[in-house]
Structure formats: structure tokens, C-alpha cells
Design a protein that fits this description.
With about 240 residues, this protein is α+β, with helices and mostly antiparallel strands. The chain has 3 helices and 19 strands. The chain has helices spanning about 5-20, 210-215, 220-230; strands spanning about 30, 40-45, 45-50, 55, 60, 75, 85, 90-95, 95-105, 110-120, 125-130, 130-135, 140, 145-150, 155-160, 165-170, 175, 180-190, 195-205. A 4-stranded mixed beta sheet has the order 3-10-9-6, with no helix packed on it. It has a 4-stranded mixed beta sheet with strand order 12-19-18-15, with no helix packed on it. The radius of gyration is 24 Å and the shape is elongated. The termini are far apart.
């Protein structure tokens, strides 16, 4: 087998694993494999429950033969030592950790979906390093969020901007100032605790002086990027009068 074929297969396998383990933020929608199959399963992709607690899954079959009856599905846990699930979709948390639950339609076994169960504590505290910030157009700002308790089971957060044309935000909280105006950056928990915090961003226009300062200190964009990549400090040199 040629090396590039083996490499391609490995990449495909890694992509499949990523799809199975890194779920959408809000819900899980099954992707039917059979041509002409228009059914799909919808369910929340993440649940956080405490040890020894029970959770009733409530999947919905959409499309042909739509149903919300839990007995119309089969359920299986990838790690029954963490959480087990019975034939009716009742999940029982056994110990700290996480597992995947596969939900399959009985009427069409090619239609299935995964949801993830995290056994542990919900987030009870969400704090931002600031609630308002002024940024000059073209600059960046890192919004930092802190959650508690430290042993919360699922700490992933969602960042959204009310006005991406003014300020956009990455999945890690990096805010980019696009154009003058105001935008609200909202940070939400995804573990079911339903906590959220906001930061008001004001973007000011890039003035001619700001542009000249940037050009004088960083006359060559390539040089600027090269310095950043090498983690070096660039000091502005004061010329003698």
C-alpha cells in the first residue's frame, strides 16, 4: 500500500473519531446513512448529572414515522461503569467521568445519534475579567472567563457577539474589533446550568495618528509577524533630536 494512501486512511479515521467525540453545542442530530432515508434523531448532545442520580433521555424521531416515544429507540452506553442506560432511555450515573450513549431508531437502524453523559457537578459560578472594554479598530482583546467549582464536570463555554460586523469573537474568547460601534459579547455555559455573563465592547475608529504609530513601530508587516512568532519583544527606538 502506498504511503499517501495509508496517511489518507489515518486522517479519515481521526476525522471520524473527532466527529463522534466533539459534539455540537446545543443538540445532536443523527445523519442517516441510507440513500432516501429522511428520518433523523434529535436530542441534547450534553447532559451533566451527579453520581447516583438518574436522567430520562427524551429523543425525538423526525421525518418519516416521527415519534417521541422513548420505547421506539434502543440505547447503549460506551462505558457502563460510568453510567448505564436501560431499554427505556433511563440513565443512571455510577461514578465520575463521561460516556457516550448511542440512540438508535427501532424502525430504521441506520438512523442513530450520540449524546454524552458527564457525571459530576454543574457550573455554579461564571465570571468575566471585565464587563466593558474599548478597543481600537483592527486590534484584539482576550476576554477571559472563569468558572466554578474547579471540579465542574463540563467547563466548555459558548461565546457570541450581538454585532459581528463591529466585533467578532472566537470560540476561545478572542475579540476582534472590526468597525466603529458597539457590540455585546455573551458567554454561556453549556452544561445545563444556564449561566451567562456579558461584556459590552466599544470599537473606536482607527485615527491617522494610530496608523502612523503602527507604521513607524512596525514598518514591515512580515517583520512584525516574524517577531511575534519568535516570541520576542520589540522596543521602539527614540531617535535623537
Amino acid at each position: 500500500m502506498k504511503p499517501y494512501i495509508r496517511t489518507t486512511r489515518r486522517i479519515i479515521i481521526l476525522l471520524v473519531i473527532a466527529i463522534l467525540w466533539f459534539e455540537p453545542a446545543l443538540s445532536c442530530m443523527a445523519v442517516p446513512k441510507e440513500k432516501g432515508n429522511t428520518t433523523s434523531i434529535q436530542i441534547d448532545s450534553i447532559y451533566v448529572i451527579n453520581r447516583n442520580e438518574a436522567l430520562q433521555l427524551e429523543p425525538r424521531l423526525l421525518g418519516d414515522n416521527s415519534s417521541s416515544n422513548t420505547s421506539d429507540f434502543t440505547y447503549s452506553s460506551s462505558n457502563r461503569s460510568i453510567a448505564k442506560v436501560d431499554e427505556n432511555g433511563l440513565v443512571t450515573a455510577l461514578k465520575k467521568g463521561h460516556t457516550k450513549i448511542r440512540i438508535t431508531s427501532k424502525s430504521n437502524t441506520s438512523t442513530y445519534c450520540y449524546t454524552r453523559i458527564y457525571v459530576g457537578k454543574l457550573i455554579t459560578k461564571l465570571k468575566l475579567n471585565t464587563t466593558k472594554k474599548t478597543i481600537t479598530q483592527g486590534n484584539y482583546y482576550m476576554l477571559k472567563a472563569t468558572v466554578g467549582p474547579k471540579r465542574a464536570a463540563y467547563k466548555k463555554l459558548e461565546y457570541t457577539s450581538s454585532n459581528p460586523s463591529v466585533a467578532k469573537v472566537s470560540t476561545k474568547g478572542k475579540i476582534t474589533a472590526i468597525s466603529p460601534g458597539n457590540a455585546t459579547i455573551t458567554v454561556r455555559t453549556l452544561d445545563g446550568s444556564n449561566l451567562s455573563k456579558s461584556c459590552v465592547i466599544t470599537v473606536t475608529a482607527l485615527t491617522k495618528k494610530d496608523d502612523e504609530e503602527t507604521t513607524r513601530v512596525f514598518p514591515n508587516p512580515f517583520f512584525q509577524n516574524n517577531m511575534k512568532n519568535n516570541n520576542m519583544n520589540l522596543l521602539e527606538t527614540t531617535e535623537p533630536n
